[in-house]
Amino acid sequence: MVEGQEDYVLPKGNDRIKMDKALLEVENSMRRQAGEKSYITETLKVISKEYGIPAKALRKVCTQHVNDSFEKNVAKSEAEQELYEALHGTENSSQANNEFESN
After folding, report:
1. CA trace torsion 88, 91, 94, 96 (10° rounding)
2. First and final CA of the chain: distance in angstroms?
3. 37, 32, 79: which is closest to 62 by C-alpha?
4. What does the alpha-carbon distance between residue 24 and residue 18 come to, in Å, rounded to a whole number?
5. Cβ atoms of residues 26 and 33 within 8 Å
């Protein structure tokens, strides 16, 4: 036996048929999923080219809509923006940078 390889006891009879059918459905689902992924990518490329909106932005908007996560992402973005402004966007931070650079 190869290291990391396990011996599996496969079911027999009707249980084997049931398992084979279930695995076939999983495989078919994976094929459909790959096809849908290709469709999404190609459609976003077409829309992006036609309307000048980056495909990445369109994908993000669609994902947020499907996951119903827009408000959560906006709140997160606002929090990140506030942190950025606190660190880099005030006169105090500009003065501190100038003092640091002059030393």
Report:
1. -100
2. 67
3. 37
4. 10
5. no
- 58, 44 contact by CB (below 8 A): yes
How far, in Å, CA of 48 to CA of 37, rounded? 16
Per-residue pLDDT of the chain (103 residues; tens, 9 = 90+): 566 668 899 999 999 999 999 999 999 999 999 999 999 999 999 999 999 999 999 999 999 888 888 888 888 888 888 888 888 886 554 555 555 555 5
Note the pTM of the prediction, 2 decimals. Answer: 0.58
What lies within 8 Å, CB to CB, of 16 at 6+ separation is: 10
Retrieve residue 70's tokens. Answer: 């827009």
How many other CB atoms are there within 10 angstroms of residue 40's CB atom? 14
